[in-house]
């Protein structure tokens, strides 16, 4: 099951990337996709049954638009700071540490990426469940990790 | 019509990247510069890439659509790779002991 799904996904990507639909290239694609799907289907479908995997995947896709909106806000924030005439007075860099409730590596990574892409904060380091974050000023440092951690927990860890 | 949309997308992307450059030049230390660089380059590059993809897809020919999908793949990879690279550079800087710039506080 996992092998078949991996094969289909890889075959679609192959056709998109090659753009050639003659028998020779399609045969090459089928052979390559079959080999890779046979040996490394575990990379794409790590554990669990297909249903919970699909549910997690859909939630992850739904998480993307809110992340994109946060990124636009973050860019506006950074641009405002950068073009501010008295920039050195409004920034106040902080290094903060906090502990997360997230357990799975994938949700920790997602949280780290999300923090990096939200206004004024960059994840520096993750050790076990301790995050180190560099923040551009004091107010955003206090607002971290905020509602995002809860959203990621709902999206990726709800059925655990 | 689609020309206007692509022009707006690409121009906005270039503008965002330009502000990123201004940020790298103006901010006081390494870490704050990474804020400007890491954030603007993901949004700017993705806007430019989406603009290219739209412009390329307007003929609606099969091969052009495939090329557009490839450009969108590039956008997705930038989106994933850029924060990761920012993160890696920051971690290295901390490990090498680069001191963060701090505002002078009263009483210190």
What does it look like?
The complex is a heterodimer of chains A (160) and B (108). Helices cover 66% and strands 12% of the residues of chain A. The two termini of chain A are 23 Å apart. With 160 residues, chain A is mainly α. Chain A has 7 helices and 3 strands, in the order H-H-H-H-E-H-E-E-H-H. In chain A, a hairpin with a 2-residue loop joins strand 2 and strand 3. Chain A has a 3-stranded antiparallel beta sheet with strand order 1-3-2. In chain A, helix 1 crosses helix 2, helix 3 runs antiparallel to helix 7 and helix 5 packs antiparallel against helix 7. Chain A has 2 domains: 43 residues, no CATH class; 108 residues, no CATH class. Chain B has 108 residues and is mainly alpha-helical. In chain B, 31% of the residues are buried. Chain B has one domain. The longest helix of chain B has 34 residues. At the A-B interface, helix 3, helix 5 and strand 2 of A face helix 1, helix 2 and helix 3 of B.
């Amino acid at each position: 099951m996992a092998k078949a799904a991996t094969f289909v996904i890889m075959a679609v990507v192959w056709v998109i990337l090659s753009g050639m639909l003659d028998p020779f290239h399609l045969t090459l694609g089928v052979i390559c996709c079959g080999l890779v799907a046979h040996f490394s289907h575990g990379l794409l479908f790590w554990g669990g049954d297909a249903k919970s995997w699909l549910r997690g995947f859909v939630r992850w896709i739904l998480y993307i638009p809110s992340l994109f909106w946060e990124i636009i806000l973050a860019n506006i924030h950074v641009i405002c700071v950068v073009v501010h005439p008295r920039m050195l007075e409004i920034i106040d860099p902080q290094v903060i540490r906090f502990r997360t409730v997230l357990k799975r590596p994938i949700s920790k990574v997602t949280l780290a990426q999300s923090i990096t892409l939200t206004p004024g904060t960059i994840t520096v380091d993750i050790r076990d469940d301790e995050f180190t974050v560099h923040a551009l000023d004091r107010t955003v440092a206090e607002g971290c990790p905020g509602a995002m951690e809860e959203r990621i927990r709902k999206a990726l860890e709800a059925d655990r | 019509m689609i020309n206007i949309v692509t022009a707006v997308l690409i121009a906005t992307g270039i503008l965002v990247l330009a502000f990123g450059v201004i940020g790298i030049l103006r901010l006081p230390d390494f870490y704050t510069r990474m804020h400007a660089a890491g954030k603007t380059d993901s949004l700017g590059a993705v806007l430019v890439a989406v603009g290219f993809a739209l412009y390329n897809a307007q003929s609606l020919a099969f091969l052009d659509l495939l090329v557009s999908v490839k450009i969108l793949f590039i956008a997705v990879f930038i989106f994933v790779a850029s924060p990761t690279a920012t993160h890696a550079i920051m971690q290295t800087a901390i490990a090498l002991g680069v001191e963060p710039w701090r505002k002078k506080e009263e009483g210190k």
